[in-house]
Amino acid sequence: MAATLSEALRETIRVQEGRIPLLARHLARLKAGGCDDVVLADARTKALRAAEAWANEYGRMSLHVAVDGSVWVEVTTSPSTIDVPGGPRIALVTSEEPHLPPGGAKPEDRSFWDRALEQARRAGADVAVLVSPTGHVIDTSQATLWLCRGDRLLTPPSPPALAGVSRAVVFDFAASLGLRAEEKVLFAEDLDTADELLLTTAVAGAVAVRDRRGPVTEALTKMFAQVFAGGADA
User: Fold this and answer.
1) Which residue in 141, 136, 139, 95 sits closest to 118, CA to CA?
2) Nearest-CA neighbor of 50 among 41, 35, 60?
3) Cβ-contact 87, 94 below 8 angstroms
4) CB-based contacts of 148, cutoff 8 Å, min separation 6
5) Is the per-residue pLDDT at 1 higher than 60?
6) Considering just the CA atoms, what is the radius of gyration of the chain in Å?
C-alpha cells in the first residue's frame, strides 16, 4: 500500500516526440516530496504510457499525486506560461515565504503562487517575482529565476524557492558551459544590476526576461534544446 503524503503533489513535464527527457528528475523530486516506490512506479508507468500515446511533437504533461498516493496524468498542447513573444515581463510582488512540501517539491495547490501571478498580471507583467517584506527575492510565480553576473549564475536558495527540475539541470550543466551556478540570497535591487535575467522551467527550458537577453541565456537555451532532443544526458 502506498504511503500517505502530507499534501498532494504535482509535476509539470515536457513531452518531446513521445519521450519524457527529464522523467528521472521529476520522479526524484516526487520521491523527495514523500512518494514511496509504489507511487513512483505508478507515476512512471502512467507518464510513459501517456507520452507514448501522445501524437504531437510537443506536449505539456501534468502529473498529479493525491495524498493517498493515487496518480493521474493529462497531456495538452498548452505552451509554457513563460513562452511569451518578446520574452516575459516581470513585476515585483511583496509576499511571505510559501509553505513547501518536503524536499522543496511542487504542491498540487498553487493558490499561493497564483495570487502573486494575478497581481503581476494586473500590473501588465507575465511573471511575478516574489519579494519578502525585507526585500529579499523568494522565487517567481512559475519558474526558477537566474541572475547572470559575468560567469556566475545566481538563483535564490531552496527553500523557500521550489526545488525546480530545470534548476537542477542548470546546476549540473553549468560547468560544461564555463559557468558557475550558485544559490545566493538576492535582493530586489540585484535584478537591476544583473548582466542578464532569465527564467527556466522543465517545459520551456531557458527564457530571457524581456530586454535582458545575452550570451549566457543563448548558451542555456541551446543546452536545454539538446536535452529535450535527447542529445545530452539529463
Assistant:
1) 141
2) 60
3) no
4) 154, 194, 195, 196, 197, 198, 214, 216, 217
5) no
6) 17
- Per-residue confidence at 4, pLDDT binned at 50, 70, 90? confident
Phi, psi of 114 (to 5 degrees): -65, -35
Kindly indicate the confidence band of residue 87, based on its pLDDT and cuts at 50, 70 and 90.
very high
Task: Characterize 95-127 residue by residue with b for buried, 16 or more Cβ atoms within 10 angstroms of its Cβ, and e for exposed.
Answer: beebebbebbbbbbeeebbeebbebbeeeebbb
List the CATH code of the domain at 9-76.
3.30.470.10
Query: What is the pTM (predicted TM-score) of this model?
Result: 0.93
90-228 CATH fold? D-amino Acid Aminotransferase; Chain A, domain 2 (3.20.10)
The whole-chain average pLDDT of the chain stands at 95
Q: Which three cell numbers stand for residue 31?
A: 520521491
CB atoms within 10 A of CB 6: 12
Cα gap 158→183, rounded to integer Å:
8
Sequence ranges of the domains in the chain: 9-76, 90-228
Cα separation, 201 vs 90, in Å, equals: 15
Contact 75, 55 (CB under 8 A): no
